[in-house]
Amino acid sequence: MEKITSFTIDHIKLIPGVYVSRKDPVGDSLITTFDLRMTSPNDEPVMNTAEMHAIEHLGATFLRNHPVFGSKIIYFGPMGCRTGFYLLLSGDYESADIVNLMIEMYEFIRDFEGEIPGASPKDCGNYLDMNLNMAKWLARRYLDETLYDISEERLVYPE
Questions:
Q1: pLDDT at 60 over 90
Q2: pTM
């Protein structure tokens, strides 16, 4: 069997950033998959499920309600390795095209107050597994250390 694309990236060299993981044609459209890498793989602790779950609920809510990108959102969700998230958009995009969107989203998460959208037994299958404070801390860290003043090395996968 061939390795899938995400397993061909050198995770030893990979640092937090915003990367185009792949582009897939679907009918007459193109789907761009982004790798939103929040932690350094195999180098620092992974994120816990509670904060990832909170980021997922807040991020998906923000993205699907975005005035420009809302209709282009296909999926936003966690990576199994718990080092980041995948974002799938309808269209042909590069990493730099969504940096401002990611800054908006992570600022929304960092500044969020109140009840997490969908965090109820009626709306979610694991609604108790959420940690808003840690989600806000991780969002702040990603903004400060990665997204604000992002460099080219954090926009293109390492060779």
A1: yes
A2: 0.95
